[in-house]
Specification:
The protein is mainly α and about 675 residues long. About 75% of the residues lie in helices and about 0% in strands. Helix 2 packs antiparallel against helix 6, helix 9 (about 240-270) runs antiparallel to helix 10 and helix 14 crosses helix 18. It starts with 10 loop residues before the first helix and ends with a helix.
Length: about 675
């Protein structure tokens, strides 16, 4: 046959091959995760049913639930990873629209989020069947279907369905890069309902177990999903593959460390070391550890072989595809192991936990003395870690400036590190330990997180430091500095930094949480306390960043407006404290009484102590803010005077000479008119 007779391959067929290849990899990975999860559960299903004392719901539930759960977890990871890819691994076009690589990743994220929602919808009746011991077909009856509200995990899956659908629709509608980070955070938020339920949310040390599980799941989703997204992009021959791989390689190292540390902590509070080799739960933990070590080795060889080859020739993707393909299958098996581990009952505790330990996750040694508040520490894996990371990143930025000979004010460094120290102390010392058990300590922590910490952080000028320390990226490939500028100057930031909006968010939180019934309803929820602390911190930082922050902002606020924000919030804050003091019912009283703390029997008196603290603490920030505003105002005048003097030196007081000449001319004309 001559060359002229050789049939050509249609462009559509050429384009379909990469899509088919990645689709096949995804299907195989999903099958591996589902099969491994079902097999692991098969070894422990009888043990779990015996311990729980419920009848066998049947094979569709026993094996179908872990298989569908594995697919849901894998879909969640692929959604997060695809959005991470579109947000930060490949650049958009110069006009802000997504490039073809980012657009494809966004469409894949939409598809994976839809699969995630479908799996979550299937898991609602499967969870009801598993909890009640009834066949899955019977759970569709109205009586059992109403049990969803009483089954925590079934309710969490129902919320996941809604959030995943929102992410799927958002990914279909978004075309500009600015929406991709928002959708990324929305996808991570969608993972939280399940992260806050299950084994880790109950029993002793459930606070540590839950916090470590949140870190574990997010890091796993970023690593697995990011790898899938990079592999899909490489298979299709997308542009900037070398940039994406280089950036993801750094993220993967951080994710590996977080997964390893959080996994060790979570296992440590669930299984005693002596039961690692004798219990089913311990053996599954060891299998997961082995899988993680193998993945770490594969990642190491990929950095040694695939990454240098790609940096040398961006079109040489063969090594990357080989290593990433193997890692993807190992990740799928690891996801199945993780689901099987979640379905396997942990060994019984060595001692019967107390009521306090069940509710809080730990015991209290006695009333909160001054020494206990200072030295009775219990490290908060979320906020304590955030405090340390923020301090380290800030110091690295200062060191980079000084290495190139640039100065950075010592006062700003002291303010930022003090804010991080107060955040660490408030959440991890005895204050953090006693905060869930006593309203007065909780209110003290609330005041520190919403006022003291934000003031110190706002005075640290972290955004200014980052903009000076981070190098500008290439013209076509924006980096962290450009992302930060985009975050500061986007329309959402401009809206949030409106003085009225920032003030309303800051003040309204007090009334909604305590007078709106939220705290009274969710006083026993660890998740609610996490979200409350986050709200206190972020709303306070937003308010004081607008008032006394030294960083560049989306809008300029006049000094008188800043003073009005501070003085305008004071009456609302004082009224809030007085209202709490005058209440005759105890907020969260049902929870505090259930703790059975004999040294905290006067709950109404404790609430009034906390209310007095809230009312009185509003004066301290006022003094700090007033001093900061006066200093900033004075320095602003000094800078203006220096700029004026420098301009005068350059042009020999040309502006003053012109000003005098104008008045001389006016005087001359006035004299001529009088004549």
């Amino acid at each position: 046959m001559s060359l002229a007779q050789v049939p050509s391959v249609a462009p559509e067929a050429e384009a379909a091959r990469p899509r088919a290849s990645f689709a096949a990899i995804t299907v195989v990975a999903g099958a591996i995760a589902a099969v491994v999860a079902a097999l692991v559960v098969g070894f422990s299903a009888a043990e779990a049913l015996t311990l729980l004392g419920i009848p066998d719901p049947g094979m569709p539930t026993t094996y179908g639930l872990p298989a569908v759960r594995a697919l849901a977890d894998l879909s969640a990871a692929l959604t997060v990873g695809s959005l991470l890819f579109a947000s930060f691994l490949v650049p958009p076009q110069r006009n802000g629209l997504l490039d073809i690589g980012g657009y494809r990743a966004l469409r894949r994220a939409s598809n994976f989020a839809l699969v995630w929602a479908c799996c979550a919808a299937l898991l609602v009746p499967l969870t009801v069947s598993d909890t009640t011991g009834q066949p899955v077909g019977d759970t569709l009856r109205p009586g059992l279907w109403r049990a969803i509200d009483q089954i925590e995990q079934a309710g969490a899956w129902r919320i996941t369905v809604l959030f995943a659908l929102i992410v799927a629709v958002g990914c279909r509608l978004a075309l500009r890069w600015g929406w991709t980070p928002v959708l990324l955070w929305a996808s991570i938020l969608t993972m939280m309902p399940l992260a806050l339920t299950g084994h880790s949310s109950s029993g002793g040390s459930h606070d540590v177990a839950t916090n470590s599980l949140i870190l574990h799941l997010v890091a796993f989703a970023v690593w697995v999903g990011g790898l899938f997204a990079v592999l899909a992009h490489a298979i299709r021959g997308g542009a900037y593959t070398d940039v994406a791989v280089r950036r993801f390689s750094r993220i993967a190292v951080i994710a590996f460390v977080v997964i390893a540390v959080s996994g060790v902590i979570n296992s440590w509070v669930r299984v005693p070391p002596g039961e690692l080799f004798t219990s089913t739960y311990g053996r599954v933990v060891l299998a997961k550890v082995a899988a993680l070590m193998v993945l770490g080795v594969c990642g190491y060889f990929q950095r040694r072989a695939a990454l240098p080859a790609l940096m040398a020739d961006p079109k040489n993707r063969s090594a990357l595809v080989r290593f990433a393909g193997v890692e993807v299958m190992l990740f799928a098996a690891t996801a199945g192991l993780a689901v099987g581990l979640g379905r396997t009952p942990p060994p019984p505790p060595l001692s019967i936990p107390t009521v306090t330990e069940v509710e809080l996750g730990y015991n209290l040694a006695g009333p909160p003395t001054f020494a206990r508040l200072l030295f009775d520490w219990r490290f908060d894996l979320l906020f304590g870690t955030v405090a340390i990371v923020l301090a380290v990143l800030y110091l690295l930025g200062v060191r980079r400036l000084r290495a190139r000979g640039d100065a950075w004010p010592v006062g700003r460094t002291i303010a930022w590190l003090s804010g991080c120290a107060v955040l660490l102390f408030t959440t991890s010392s005895g204050v953090g330990r006693y905060s869930p058990a006593m309203f007065s300590v909780h209110m003290g922590a609330h005041m520190a997180l919403s006022m003291l910490v934000p003031i110190l952080l706002a005075l640290g000028g972290a955004v200014t430091l980052a903009l000076r320390a981070l190098p500008p990226a290439g013209r076509d490939v924006p980096g962290p500095r450009e992302w930060l500028l985009a975050a500061v100057h986007n329309p959402v930031s401009r809206f949030l930094t409106n003085p009225i909006v920032a003030s309303v968010i800051f003040v309204a939180g007090f009334y909604a949480l305590y007078l709106g019934g939220i705290f009274d309803t969710y006083a026993d929820s660890h998740a609610a306390h996490l979200f409350m602390n986050m709200h206190f911190l972020l709303s306070g930082y937003l308010f004081y960043w607008v008032v006394i922050g030294i960083d560049p902002k989306p809008r300029q606020v006049e000094p008188l407006t800043k003073l009005a924000m501070v003085f305008g919030s004071l009456p609302f804050h004082a009224f809030f404290g007085i209202t709490l003091m005058s209440m005759t019912t105890v907020l969260g009283g049902w929870f505090y009484r259930g703790l059975g703390l004999d040294w905290n029997s006067d709950l109404l008196g404790d609430q009034r102590n906390g209310s007095s603290l809230a009312w009185a603490s509003g004066e301290i920030p006022l003094v700090v803010v007033m001093v900061a505003l006066l200093v900033q105002w004075s320095r602003s005048d000094e800078r203006l005077a220096k700029r004026t003097d420098r301009a005068a030196d350059r042009d020999h007081d040309a502006a003053l000479a012109a000003h005098n000449a104008m008045f001389a001319e006016l005087a001359k004309r006035d004299g001529e008119l009088r004549k």
